[in-house]
UniProtKB/TrEMBL annotation:
Entry protein name: Adhesin
Organism: Pseudoalteromonas denitrificans DSM 6059
Extent of the signal sequence: 1-21
The organism's taxonomic lineage, starting at the top: Bacteria, Pseudomonadati, Pseudomonadota, Gammaproteobacteria, Alteromonadales
Keywords for the protein's UniProt record, in alphabetical order: Signal
Amino acid sequence: MKKLFIATSIIATIMSSTVLADSDKRIVENITLTEEQSLDIKFPVGSVEIEVVDSNQLEIEIELKHKNQGWNDWFNSDKDLTNIELKKEIHHGKIALEIDDDDLNQKWFIKVPRTAAIDIDLGVGSVDIDELDNSVEIDVGVGSVMIETNTEDFKQIDLESGVGDTRISGFSGNSNQKRTMVSSSSDYSSSGQYRIDIEVGVGDIKVRN
């Protein structure tokens, strides 16, 4: 009986290790951007953290996990993450990145060249951009957006939240905010060259210089 218990324990440990190994995945890629190329990111659920850098290298790191991962998911999930790949479409004017899988929680960590405009489409989650120095367009269904800029060279900033708060702060010009019972919108205009356009269905948006 004791030997049977030990053998069963060993098998259970091996099974657990195998499932754990298949339950998360890390994708790392580097892409060289030209000054004419913009960046387009799209995925259903998760978070993206972007650092703007003085380089022509787009550095991408993505952590993938099953959504709501727990004890039951070890045995119920049959998705093998080893087959999940980052879809890339590289054109003269744009690089598009996507992992279209609703069953995964995705964490993106990206270093983006300062010359690249950014477009993000996220279903549920958060967007955090540091040192923004270009145009950005963001659409989030449910979640939050936080942007810290490195310049005041913006022509227009438009923020809109269906249910939540919007804030623009730290700019020398005037910004306007309109609130109803649940929704909020903020805008700013000046003589710069870049644009920020953000829309969130449910959640807060903050842009700070």
